[in-house]
Amino acid sequence: MRKASFAACLLALALLAAPPAGAADRLPDAAKIAGVAVGGLGPYGARVELQRQLGPVYESPITVRIKQRHFKLTTAKLGQKVLYLDMVHAAYEQFARGVPIHVRLMRRYDRAQLEGVVAALGRPFYRPTRSARVRFGITHIRLRRGHTGRLLDSRELRQKLHAELVKPTSKRRVWGHVRWTRPALTRHVLRLRYRTFVTVSRPGRTVRLFKRLHLARRYTVAVGAAGYDTPAGLHHVISKQVNPTWYVPNRAWAGSLAGQVIGPGDPRNPLKARFIAIGGGVGFHGTADLASIGQAASHGCIRMTVPDVISLYNRVSVGTPVLIR
Fold first, then answer.
1. How far is the C-alpha of 78 from the C-alpha of 84, rounded, in Å?
2. How far is CA 221 from the centre of its chain?
């Protein structure tokens, strides 16, 4: 009986001295994870406590305001993930090494996911910029105005959202700004680019001079006769001459003058006052044959009255485009 009583006493003392079940898994009292006290908690309890205290700070939704619209976005959608389990594991690794437990906040960011969200936010506000356009015709030049575009300042919004994720504010609100974009080409730019433009209507026997895309002068002219058509297409002024010399083409229609060089002032020289060359021996020139004006009568050149050719000569420069149809 005495031996049995003694054994029972020893067992009771052993039970009182033994630590409760799972005590070895609990973190020491001074343990902190991301500034949260987790002393005396096990793995599950530590994670729950972290979520309870850190979640409202780092995982509360962020409101994005763009113009008059509001978008409420979760931090998970924005690519942030708070690594609760990783922080608890890090705490237990320090515990196992016997060092003081101080674990920093661990998070992961998905940049591509954030960029995708910002791109989606910007779509409703996007309007492409359209540059002014010009369409050249023989009788008219049509100028279509451009318009400004708009787009969300994606870079700025990404930076603001990332800053709000990294360092949360109490309001959890950011503003996105829509920027206006100007067209590269405006009507003013096109008018400066196309300061001078000349057209020739062969059926209408008319030359039109456009300045800054506005009709400035109209001249009645003679064009190439049948078989000697004034060449159609887009040409450019390649040279200008005052009182030009006529280098007679070596063609059958030139007769006995073929291949000769006839200087200015010679009555046999049909090039009067000015010559504006556009290539291939063709150009604008004055004529003494006023009866041919308004007719298809030349060998390919555009004949003009002397006052008219001088007027055109003074208003065009080398490189001026000439459209013939």
1. 18
2. 46
Q: What are the tens digits of pLDDT across the range 219-254? A: 999 999 999 999 999 999 999 999 999 998 888 888
Bridge partners for 211 per DSSP:
196, 214
Query: Residue with structure tokens 């050719």?
Result: 309
How much of the chain, in percent, has pLDDT values that exceed 70?
Answer: 93
9 given a catalytic annotation? no
User: Which of 140, 147, 235, 285 is the catalytic position?
Assistant: 285
CATH architecture of the domain 194-324 equals Beta Barrel (2.40)
| Degrees, nearest 5: CA angle 185-186-190 | 80
Question: Which pair of tokens denotes residue 195?
Answer: 């300061």
**Half-sphere exposure for 76 (CA within 13 Å, toward CB):** 2
Q: Is 285 a catalytic site residue?
A: yes
User: Which among 102, 140, 147, 301 is annotated as catalytic?
Assistant: 301
Q: Where are the domains of the chain?
A: 194-324
DSSP three-state, residue 266: coil
